[in-house]
Amino acid sequence: MKEKSMEWNHMWIDGEQVTLQETFEVYNPATGAVLAYVPNGGERETKQAIDAAYRAFPEWSKRTAGDRAGYLLDWADRILAHHEELALLLSSEQGKPLAEARGEIAGTAYMIRYNAEEGQRLAGEIIPASNPGQKLMVFREAVGVAGLITPANFPAAILAQKVAPALVAGCTIVLKPAEQTPCIAIALFRHLMETGIPQGVANLVTGEPAAIGNMLSADPRVRKISFTGSTEVGKILMRQAADHVKRLTLELGGNSPVIVFPDADLDAAAEKIVSNKFENAGQVCNGINLIYAHKKIHQELVDKLAERISRLQVAPGLAPDSQVGAMIDPSYLAKVERLVADAVEKGAKVLTGGRRLTENGLGNGLFFAPTLLDEVTHDMELTKEEIFGPVAPVLTFEDETEVLERSNNTPYGLAGYVFTRDAARMFRMIAGLEVGNMAINGTSLAYPQAPFGGVKASGIGRVGGKQGVEEFTELKYVALTFE
Questions:
Q1: Which of 136, 318, 391, 457 is the most buried (most CB within 10 A)?
Q2: pTM for this structure?
Q3: 391: left (phi over 0), alpha (psi -120 to 50) or beta
């Protein structure tokens, strides 16, 4: 078994597989079994990767966008050709149901293709000049070496969301995947290397997060950091990046509300809220954190939510009936248990779920029952922290001013959701909610062609859309006099 698990004992540096004697264990969160042994890299390996990326940058950045895009399109094709095996690996390593893993792998290929195409449309501009015989021009140029740090909740899709725009823009990269889910990153890079992409352009280092992150921040040759993860780590990276004034894209934590007004289609609202809240066992950065139900429809909405949530099937991701899988990490599960216990102690009512699941063969895994809490109040910790788990708290409100004030009373500003049929109210909520992303009468936000990112403590910059590619470029302005 260990010999099979050693299949993942390699990083990718300067186009070569690099194995290490020192490894760390990757676990299947549904069973607690060791899934793989992965290189425990650190400062030395990160420096080697930066060296390779720095050497490769001049030649790679001078290639045409179409040339660079060709490698990405080939990569997407190879991913789709191995769709099922990658989905099985992702489900086993991350814990999500196989159906969700299949969707993520398909989305990964789509994300790569979109960015490959969008990168070929990047353009500068010519500005009307102030003097005769003069041209004012703006060029877009690749930033340089980019350090990319990805999370464990969507380890394939977010990898593509960072790697593809960076490469098509002309940057070279050093990727550090989450320590809980490095295998899917290694597998995806294997397919990228098979495209024949030049040595040093794309590098992957696994290991100690602090050591790798510190090197990426400390080396002045790394001109850009793109990170998705917690606000706490994002703040650390901001402080470290300040020494070299590095460019940053930070997609951080949230406290996303959904606000349901009396005129909403409650069946549609309940269906979409449950779909959003319990995707990936609630481990979604823009997932709903708080449900605000107007007092007039509170009980009706709660009944509809409870009926749907109680029917969700919790099982290991590879089980055919799995709808909610295991949580990724023991610390995430412990946090959910703490937040639910605090809410119950302060008066919240558990309508369904509310506990860790250990029966029916789930005892060795990290499973928490899909949970609905009613009578939630703002003195409870789960209203202030990102839950990042399968727990749906319901609060009530009476008017727009009140719910906007309560929704905005947080340091976060990632996403917000509103259900109403009143067009004027829609625009008042668009203007009033302090978030970077918003959905009305729906709960889906992540599309490759749209810019995604937060305000306040939820982040800086955007991923997705043309803006996501532009994040990896610098503007160069030239005033040319020719007479």
A1: 391
A2: 0.96
A3: beta
